[in-house]
Amino acid sequence: MSDAGETGGGDADDRGIKEGVERSSGDPRVLFAMNAVLSALLASTVVWGLDFLGAAAYSLRNVATLTLIVFAVTYAVVLR
C-alpha cells in the first residue's frame, strides 16, 4: 500500500537539495553556520576516536584542519 501523497514519478525527490537551496528564500548564512558547527562536531568526534585508537593526537590543530576539510567538501558537493 502506498500513501496518497506519493507519486510514481517522484518529482519532489528528483529536484534534489541543490535546487531546494537555490529556490529557498532563507538566509544562506544560516546554512554556512550550521555547516560549520556540524563539521566541527564531526571533526571533533573523529579526531577523538583517532586519539582513542592512538592514530592521531587530539589537538586543536587536528580538529580545526579536519573541520575545514569537512566544511569545504560539504560545501563543494552539496551547495555547488
Describe the secondary-structure layout.
Layout: H1 11-14, H2 16-23, H3 28-53, H4 60-79
Helix pairs in contact: 3-4
Region (Disordered): 1-23
InterPro entries: DUF8107 (IPR058420)
Domain DUF8107: 10-78
The rough form would be described as: elongated
Low-confidence stretches are none
Radius of gyration: 18 Å
What is the H-and-E element order?
HHHH
How many extended strands?
0
Query: Given the helix and strand composition, which structural class is it?
Result: mainly alpha
Our count of helices gives 4
Major sheet details: none
In percent, how helical is the residue content?
over 70%
Indicate the mean pLDDT.
84
- End-to-end Cα distance, whole Å, is 37 Å
Q: Report strand %.
A: under 5%
Organism: Halorubrum hochstenium ATCC 700873
Domain DUF8107: 10-78
Biased composition (Basic and acidic residues): 12-23
Transmembrane segments: 30-50, 56-78
Give your account of this protein's structure.
The protein has a domain at 25-79. It is mainly alpha-helical and 80 residues long. The mean pLDDT is 84. The chain is elongated. The chain contains four helices and no strands. The chain has helices spanning 11-14, 16-23, 28-53, 60-79. Helix 3 packs across helix 4. The longest helix is centred in the middle third of the chain and has 26 residues, at 28-53. Helices cover 72% and strands 0% of the residues. Residues 1-23 are annotated as: Disordered. InterPro entries: DUF8107 (IPR058420). It comes from Halorubrum hochstenium ATCC 700873. Keywords: Membrane, Transmembrane, Transmembrane helix. Residues 10-78 form the DUF8107 domain.
